[in-house]
Structures are given as C-alpha cells and as structure tokens.
Write a structure and sequence with these properties.
- Helices cover 29% and strands 27% of the residues.
- It is built from eight helices and 14 strands.
- The longest helix has 16 residues, at 67-82.
Length: 313
C-alpha cells in the first residue's frame, strides 16, 4: 500500500514561541493555536484550540531549566496523545539537563536518561534535537532521534570571515572530537584547553595544549552557561600571543554573570544560535538562526525523505 502522508501541524511551547514562528514560516505554514491557562499557584494547562486527530504534529520547545519548560513540553505531548494525534515529534532545539548524562560521583541521578524516558512516556514518537552535550544521549531513547549539528549553521559564517592562520580550539578535553571535526572542515590546526574544576561552574586551573601565537582562534563548544570557561580561555590565549579569539556555542544559556564576563573579556565575539532566547542583548553576541535547519529537517521527516546530509559535521 502507498504511504499516506497526513497533514502536519506545528505548535510551540511558550519559551520557544519566537523560534517556533520562524520555523513555521520557513516550513511554509503558521503556528497552530495553543492557549495556556494558569492557576494562581503556578500550575498551568496547555490546550490545543484546533483538531489534531490523525495528524503529524511537531511540538517545538527547548527544555532549558527551570523545570517549567520541560513540564510544558511533557504536558503538550500528553495532550496531543489524548487528542489522537497520529505522530508526535518533540522538537527540542536545546535538550536540557543533558550535562547529567552519567554518574560522575556516588548517589547522583542520570537526569538526561530520566528526561528521555519522560518524553517517551508522555507520548513522543520521535525526537529532533541539535548538538547534544554528548552524542551518546541518543541511546537513552527507544524512539527515533534525529540529532542535528550546529556546524551546518556555523561553518558558512566562519568561512565568510576569511580569517588567516585560523586555529580551532576546544575549551576542554571532552569537546576535542567536536573541535577536530570543525578543524577538518576548515583545514586548520587544533588547540585543546585542559582545565580543572574546584566545583561546578568554577575553574581552578587552565592550561593550553598547542600553539596559539600569531593565530586567529575559534573556540567551539555545545553550550555556554556562565561563560567562565570561554572568557578564561580567551584571555589566556590572548596572553599567549593569539591575534583574536572568537567562540562558537550552539546553546546560549548565559546564566549568572555571563554577560558581564563577556563584556569584560578579550573575546572578540560569541556566535550562538537562537535555540534558547537571549535574556539580554550584547554587542559581543551574534545570533545565527537555526529555524531553516529545523524546518528543512521537519519537512523531510514529514515527507519520509532522507535527512542524512544534516548529520555531517
């Protein structure tokens, strides 16, 4: 029997409404109608204000903390399941809680695994996300996961800068694979930062493995939280003779004193996507939209076409 392609509808959680509108426009449609009722104690209830019976729906929402963002995604999925949607694809531009992907000390949770199970239990039949903190998180799901790479967005921008003596750097040992992938695409050298932490978000010591003197350096990471690592690395590289230091971070969490650190650092610019809305503007932060990438993949998923080209770093 021929495959029957049902109608596709796109909805967005409140924290990703702006990005959702961009994705829907690029997809060639408009966002579906959802209203959210809120009780006086903070409890909320999303409601689809149109029929989704028998349709494929895409629910767009990053699950960055606080917990309300994840809870809203779960409620949206559950409501869609109970409204008889045929396929429910959770589109998570940023998959939150991903740094807790293993037990790095006794008596701690593996939150990334828990979140994966919660999404599936709620009723998600497919996951689309971008630049997971660790690629292996895909294995926490029993449903199909389309893991996209932000390099598709960042590489054309980097190439347009025509930077001489370009060197790609990883801010830590764990990001070396990502740095090597960028370096291969750009034909550049690689530098690795070795850091030791006193505790979460606090660096006690940092050293460089590689030469940055006379180089234009691009730091590459999946996310930027407090910006402590990036700004410390940028300042250290400039002290070691780098000509300039830029940073590429897919997900701009930018919590705490991050904006202040950026302004005071020697980092020339921080290049991010709009997977998470910025809490404030900064002249050092350049935002490249991921809307076209997600819309293209969603179109291909809906029409049962290959998306393997989007998996290339």
């Amino acid at each position: 029997m021929p495959i029957v392609i049902t109608e596709a509808k796109i909805f967005a959680c409140s924290q990703s409404k702006v990005l959702g509108e961009k994705i829907a426009e690029s997809f060639g449609t408009s966002l579906g109608n959802v209203i959210t009722s809120t009780y006086s104690d903070g409890e909320f209830q999303p409601s689809y204000e149109e029929s989704i019976r028998g349709t494929r729906i895409f629910i767009i929402g990053s699950t960055n903390p606080g917990p309300g963002n994840l809870m809203e995604m779960l409620l949206m999925i559950d409501a869609a399941k109970r409204a008889s949607a045929r396929h429910i694809t959770a589109v998570l531009p940023y998959f939150g809680w991903a740094r807790q992907d293993r037990k790095d000390k006794p008596r701690v949770p593996i939150a990334a695994k828990l979140v994966a199970k919660m999404l599936e239990t709620a009723g998600a039949t497919r996951i689309i996300t971008m630049d997971l903190h660790a690629d292996q998180i895909q294995g926490f799901f029993e449903k199909p996961v389309d893991h996209l790479y932000g390099s598709i967005i960042f590489l054309p921008y980097l190439q347009s800068l025509n930077l001489p003596n370009l060197t790609v750097a990883s801010p830590d040992m764990g990001g070396s694979k990502r740095a090597y992938a960028y370096a291969k695409a750009l034909g550049s050298d690689v530098v690795i930062c070795y850091k030791q932490r006193a505790k979460a978000n606090v660096i006690s010591h940092m050293e460089l493995i590689g030469e940055v003197k006379g180089k234009n350096v691009v730091l590459v990471d999946d996310m930027v939280d407090t910006a402590g690592t990036l700004t410390k690395a940028a300042d250290l590289m400039m002290e070691r003779g780098a000509l300039s230091v830029r940073a590429i971070c897919t997900h701009p969490i930018l919590s705490g004193n991050a904006y202040e650190r950026l302004e005071q650092s020697k980092l020339e610019e921080l290049i991010v996507t709009d997977s998470i809305p910025l809490s404030q503007e900064s002249k050092k932060v350049r935002v490249l939209s991921c809307a076209d990438l997600f819309a293209d993949v969603m179109q291909k998923v809906h029409n049962n076409k290959s998306i393997s080209s989007k998996f290339v770093m």
